[in-house]
Amino acid sequence: MSYSPLPPPSQEALVHSQRLVNQLILAIKQSGGALPFTEFMTQALYTPGLGYYSAGLRKFGAKGDFITAPEISPLFSQGIAKQCQPFLTAFEQSVILEFGAGSGIMAAEILKELERLNCLPHQYLILEVSAELRQRQQTTLQTQIPKLFNRIHWLDRLPSQPISGAILANEVLDAMPIHRFRLDAETVSEFQVSYQEDRFVWQESPTTNQSLRIAVESLRHQLPVGYISEINLALPAWLQSVADSLLAGLVLLIDYGFPSREYYHPQRSHGTLMCHYQHYAHDDPLILVGLQDITAHVNFTAVAEAAMAAGLSVAGYTNQANFLLACGLIELLSTLDQNNMPYYLQQTQAVKTLILPSEMGELFKVMALTRNWDKPLLGFASDERIKL
């Protein structure tokens, strides 16, 4: 295969990828010649030992495939810590649970800031599916906050007993496997993946998935025939499991996405499916299998509806810039030592990346869901909210 103009993978990476390709070819054969894209995406990302998020590939930072906000500046995590503060002081055995903690840097910076604020959680739980990332997180946290390391525990699944405190998910929803569809004149077609002439190719056929058909048919009145997009049918079950894990407190979701009216805008006629490989973004998820991230933007209206159905309250929704500014981002920047001018200027530039509309400030959204909590939230105190 040719990946031009993307950087060519190493021979070791190609060997790794081929092992996953072989598994997918077998899955396609066992499915009768085509695999629904949601299953292809699941295996490409999460096959134990081989999938992108389950294997030992470096994903975050300058040497990885993309850079997340916690890697850009510690001020991002400090703002999140300030949002968590009232939830930690309200409960005697307060807990923070983080989904997919990446390199571990967000957990480290949150705990540093909470220690400064004198409101450390009783426990900091990390739910991580990747053994490699879990090891990297442990190294980061042992190095950066050795005194607090005994508060941190790793989980393979959600806790059996509900917690009180805060649940955090930064760039988690975008990596959930989605169904890809086309709205045809009289039916709904689902994208599947087959293997022909030594490569994976798209294949479409009328969907047999009743949930997918019903969900897409509800959009027919607003979309043109031939419209292609995605839908996350796993979202309600995931949010129900999150709600069941929270006795009282906050769920904070941070990701790139739109409300439904923008997500399914007639002009966004080919969806939001996107891949990330060595800091290149492209739209072909059928190449570099196991070596690249596969994502779709988040439909935050769907998140809100599923959250309310699960018994959570939507306590706030805004863009990342508004949220971070309300959490005191500029004040946090002003506390930095300006005698260390190179670092101060670096952080000033990082703040611009986090909040400018042309960078992360507008596309990234923040949604707060709560249970058994009726007080206002710091990060949503301004009037700069976005309609769902």
TrEMBL record:
A molecular-function term among this protein's GO annotations? protein-arginine omega-N symmetric methyltransferase activity
Q: Which processes are annotated in GO (biological process)?
A: methylation
> InterPro entries, per this entry?
NDUFAF7 (IPR003788), NDUFAF7_sf (IPR038375), SAM-dependent_MTases_sf (IPR029063)
Q: Which Gene3D superfamilies match?
A: 3.40.50.12710
Q: Which UniProt keywords apply?
A: Methyltransferase, Transferase
Entry keyword Cell membrane = no
Its protein name is SAM-dependent methyltransferase
User: Native species of this protein?
Assistant: Thioploca ingrica
